[in-house]
Amino acid sequence: MVVLALLLSVPLSGCVDAEPEPAVIQVAAKDGSRYTGWDYGGHSRTGVDAQLAASLDPVRDHAALNVSGAWAIVGSARTDPFRIVFIVGNGTDPVRADVDEPGWNGTAGQRLPTLPLRVVADGSAALTIDGTPLTDPYTDATQWAARFFVTESGVRDVVASEVLAEGRMETYDPATPERFTAGDDLEAVLLLTSPVGQDLPTTRTNESRTVPGGGSDNVSFLVPSREAIVRVVVEVADDPTAVGPYSVRVLDPDGGHVARRAVGALQQNRVATFEFGSRTMGLFEVVVDSTSTAAAYTIDIEVAPPPLPTWWFHWESPRIQE
């Protein structure tokens, strides 16, 4: 009896002050919206017939997340099947529960304000549309930087689709995150963006050059992304001793002709202007050829990459189970 009393008086190992292990968080939603870019004003909103299924484990830093549905083609009644597969990141603590942190804090600034997040997961994701991977125009990669989160402080207005500020009377400006005004609805958000993390800058070069008689002059310039808007202006000097015509060619990184035009030294035909959207990235080249005499010319090149490629998927009132 004494031995039994002693045994009963000794607590079993692991049974004192043991906290229950946090449960895996299951998130499900359907339908939803798609936005192009950060679009705080909600102007690009497109409804999507999409099923979201996520299982997130903050203890083991595991996340299984899939989205599938119909991708609406803007300006058309056509839809294509699409799928997003999320891969959890290998950084420190990629899956977290019950934290306050920015919805997205890119290197270009606080893209989204600090929010109370029920759960958040960082990683990468692949997006396929009709079986074809969607590539990032900044990197040509098929893996996008990704973040998924659920918040009870609504980011977007249920009716206006805007991210709001100042008493929900203004559109949110990431330059003043302190003016953000949260809602009170439950939302799930999946953000896909280029891992570059910030907008590529517009570049402009202007040079005065000379093409030798019977020869060529070459100017190279970098296009750092696909879908950049490129503008090239070549103007031959108004010189009566310059006998044209002169040929101006724009070549892509593979040496293929993007555009070609002939100019002269006469007042009405001294300028060649090219504007195009780049289908590839890399080192482009402008070649000015002379068939006879030398000529002075100026060249102006402007390269404007697209804004940081970003897709925002949004669901109102997702179902959460723990």
Overview of the structural elements:
By secondary structure, the chain is mainly β. The protein folds into two domains: 193 residues, no CATH class; 102 residues, Jelly Rolls (Sandwich), CATH 2.60.120.380. It contains one helix and 23 strands. Strand 17 and strand 18 form a beta hairpin. The protein is elongated. The N terminus is likely disordered.
Q: What topology does this entry show?
A:
Elements: H1 2-9, E1 25-30, E2 33-36, E3 46-47, E4 49-57, E5 62-72, E6 79-88, E7 95-102, E8 114-129, E9 132-133, E10 143-151, E11 164-165, E12 170-171, E13 187-193, E14 203-211, E15 216-223, E16 229-236, E17 246-251, E18 257-263, E19 271-277, E20 282-290, E21 295-304, E22 310-316, E23 319-321
Antiparallel strand pairs: 1-4, 1-23, 2-3, 2-22, 4-5, 5-6, 6-8, 7-8, 8-9, 8-10, 10-13, 11-12, 13-22, 14-21, 15-20, 16-19, 16-21, 17-18, 17-20
In short:
2% of the residues lie in helices and 50% in strands.
